């Protein structure tokens, strides 16, 4: 299925995105959302649009100053006070657990969780817990966060209005390989390989999660989105030559962060997605992910290993 990724010329994506019209979604008054990495780029635009629809949105991020700056700016742009920042470093299992405790203390429901934050092509380095950074932050951080918030999502979802989990992956997952015997890329580190593996893991995780939610009759759906090629700060670790080319062609070949956020917003609030889970969405349409992502045995094995790595029990004690 790698050809599906290679066939997506970013320049074509940009031109096509210009033809999109802003959809009109129903108001979301009374609903609560958490968006990781909501201080800039796609995450920021996601927070702004959800707040504009009336949602109470919590930005989960690791920079207090950037978080408060984003909150002030969104309040000014949307004229709503329903945005706040809570500290959460996805590269720290301890920080994630503390964030969940803080959120629980608010005694509010949770209708939408957007797993958006991530790093891309960073040099080889480890998280606080000793995980390779792409895998530890992009994948394991969101895996733990989602599992710790599952009970609140289940309590908030109803038969006619499911709670929703939206995870941001990438077309890079089409060329990703999951090395179950070396998830930390210790044998041979490649920034591109590690990033692609983390994005493939997010797709496998989403499909397995939806299977478990469905099996247990939970009113929660889990979907994964591909934002396309977006002009964001994620490219700060690429070679300088690539940065120059990006700077020269971004206006033509890249989506804006607002355009990149459109599919995430669609998955979070569109009536068309009510009750629909286990989908891979691109340009607000359901499409096929990499063939390997549908391997149920691989999904199961990754889930079990992930539970061990983050120190939680397997799904049987939590999803029943």
UniProtKB/TrEMBL annotation:
Protein name (Swiss-Prot/TrEMBL): Polyprenol dehydrogenase
Listed pathway(s): Protein modification; protein glycosylation
Compartment annotation: Lipid droplet; Secreted
EC identifiers of the protein: 1.1.1.441
Primary enzyme class: oxidoreductase
Species the sequence originates in: Pipra filicauda (Wire-tailed manakin)
Catalytic activity: a di-trans,poly-cis-polyprenol + NAD(+) = a di-trans,poly-cis-polyprenal + NADH + H(+); a di-trans,poly-cis-dolichol + NAD(+) = a di-trans,poly-cis-dolichal + NADH + H(+); a di-trans,poly-cis-polyprenol + NADP(+) = a di-trans,poly-cis-polyprenal + NADPH + H(+); a di-trans,poly-cis-dolichol + NADP(+) = a di-trans,poly-cis-dolichal + NADPH + H(+)
InterPro entries reported for this sequence: NAD(P)-bd_dom_sf, SDR_fam
Domain of life: Eukaryota
Principal location class: other
Family: Belongs to the short-chain dehydrogenases/reductases (SDR) family.
Role summary: Oxidoreductase that plays a key role in early steps of protein N-linked glycosylation by mediating two non-consecutive steps in dolichol biosynthesis. Acts both as a NAD(+)-dependent dehydrogenase and as a NADPH-dependent reductase during the conversion of polyprenol into dolichol. First catalyzes the NAD(+)-dependent dehydrogenation of polyprenol into polyprenal; polyprenal is then reduced into dolichal by SRD5A3. It then catalyzes the NADPH-dependent reduction of dolichal into dolichol. May also acts as a positive regulator of starvation-induced autophagy.
Molecular-function annotations in GO: oxidoreductase activity
Any GO CC annotation of this UniProt entry: lipid droplet
Record Pfam families: adh_short (PF00106)
Keyword NAD: yes
Keywords: Lipid droplet, NAD, NADP, Oxidoreductase, Secreted
């Amino acid at each position: 299925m790698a050809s599906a990724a290679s066939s997506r010329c970013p320049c074509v994506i940009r031109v096509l995105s210009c033809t999109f019209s802003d959809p009109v979604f129903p108001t979301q008054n009374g609903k609560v959302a958490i968006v990781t990495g909501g201080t800039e780029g796609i995450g920021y635009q996601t927070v702004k649009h959800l707040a504009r629809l009336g949602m109470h949105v919590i930005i989960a991020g690791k920079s207090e100053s950037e978080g408060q700056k984003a909150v002030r700016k969104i309040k000014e742009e949307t004229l709503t006070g329903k945005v706040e920042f809570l500290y959460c470093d996805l590269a720290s299992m301890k920080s994630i657990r503390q964030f969940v405790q803080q959120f629980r203390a608010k005694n509010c429901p949770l209708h939408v969780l957007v797993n958006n934050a991530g790093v891309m092509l960073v040099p080889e380095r480890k998280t606080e817990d000793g995980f390779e950074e792409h895998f530890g932050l992009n994948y394991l951080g969101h895996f733990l966060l989602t599992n710790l918030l599952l009970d609140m999502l289940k309590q908030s979802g109803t038969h006619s209005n499911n709670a929703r989990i939206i995870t941001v992956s990438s077309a890079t997952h089409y060329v990703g390989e999951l090395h179950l015997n070396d998830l930390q890329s210790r044998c041979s580190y490649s920034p591109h390989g590690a990033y692609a593996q983390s994005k493939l893991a997010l797709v496998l995780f989403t499909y397995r999660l939806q299977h478990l939610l469905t099996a247990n009759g939970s009113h929660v759906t889990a979907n994964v989105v591909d934002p396309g090629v977006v002009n964001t700060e994620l490219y700060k670790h690429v070679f300088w030559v690539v940065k120059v080319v990006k700077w020269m062609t971004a206006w033509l070949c890249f989506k804006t962060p607002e355009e990149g956020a459109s599919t995430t917003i669609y998955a979070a609030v569109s009536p068309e997605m009510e009750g629909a889970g286990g989908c891979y969405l691109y340009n607000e349409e359901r499409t096929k992910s990499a063939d390997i992502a549908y391997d149920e045995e691989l999904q199961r094995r990754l889930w079990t290993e992930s539970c061990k790595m983050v120190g939680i029990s397997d799904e049987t004690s939590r999803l029943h």
